[in-house]
Amino acid sequence: MKSCWMVALAAGACGVAALVQAAEPDSLDPAYYQQGDLAGSLKSEAPLPLYDGDPQSLVNRLFAAFYIRASNIPPKRGGMPVPRIEGGDVIDFLAWSGSDYWTAPETCQRLSALLDECLADPARVRPADPLRRAMLQRDLWAPFDFFVSGNIARLGDKATRQRRDSICRKLAAVIRTLTLTQSEIAALPDTYALAVESGRFAADNSFDPSIDYLPKSLLTDPNEWQEIDFFQPKDIHEDIQERFVTLHTRNYKGRSYFRVFYRFPGGRPALDEYFTYVDAEGIDWKRDAHRGFISIRGQIRQIPVGTEVALVQFLITLDDRLRPMPTPIVESVRLRAFRNVDGQSEPPTNTGVGMNVSEFTLKRRLLFDGLKQGGLVREPDDQPIYRVIFQPENAPDWGDIGRSLTLVQDCRRCHTGAGQIGVQTIFSFVHQGGVDAGAQLGVAHALPAAAPSPHGARAATWKSRHETYRRLLDYLGE
Which of 2, 64, 216, 373 lies in the 20 to 30 Å Cα band around 90? Predict the structure, then answer.
């Protein structure tokens, strides 16, 4: 099979461009501004008709209370503030550890009154459709974890902690009404398969960052795309399985699980050979054992041009016994393709340093409308974003960088450094979180072609041992 980075047929490229252009209206949400400093801002603070056709239904008002909020910060560092309305049909709950917005008395009073309305008649906020129910559960689980984490850390004064406690108790009760049976979970759709089957996304990137590309065989052909797992010692004398979850899973507190895939131009044999080479030649083991953190040497044979990396985020839901359960619902897909491995500006890439990046996220608007595009939409490369995960302790409201970086700039900030662009910036090659993040030091490996992915079950187990989950059960008297 020819790798997509090798050949781009002119006719196929034209067909892809026409396909993407024809499907564009489905990807543009009329509730948002599309241009200028307000691009990505909602046009109104009114609830969106996502979970129900009536924007003012209780379920839509509940979602809006947690996922729509105003901001007034500069779009660039040192610039003038621009009033915007953030959130809506987004993946992340816009909350940071140093924010006092969510624990302010007026905010908590508003949330508490709305949650009381929900608890007075739970049927009004319990979608009959299991897919909507799983999503709403997800959308409330994130704020629960945020509020309860503040109390676990004993942040704020007694009154603040009491307000958090009250919100947590009510959120837990609503979440309890949104659980799914095992049969409902088993019947949830494979949204990635639906996305690639929709015809909306190109199956070949042709090194063109403007193409909306989702690899067709990412989750189905382990000989083309190899799923990656962490190094594990052969003789484990204690239960350390919780170490083998991604840093992203930890930052989402186990409400999502992540799978990492590589595609090498030479296929699985080339990848396996390269893993062996890095293990033998690419690491100063004595130094890194002392540091508790692995870094790959700068002067080693690089990954081949054309290497691709995919990070796929999936939803975890609670079943009717309150057990965390992995699902096939894709929340985001992040892709990188290396056009060079020396960080040069030529050939051109959307990062300017040799790699193209893209991100696709789930939109409820499409997911609930006949599973269009598997719910996935590409995020604009050049639109400023808020970083919610991987933030410092006590990060200020709107994060430590606000909206000063676009998606492409943010990817470049994390995945380049010291002039390096190749394997040194693929952090899953070794668990670069270090031992403080639970890493078992060593080089990763590709899962055997016939092996099921362990990451969903592993993340669900990790969540079931996490203090936020234990607090949820405590609130429910379980």
Answer: 216
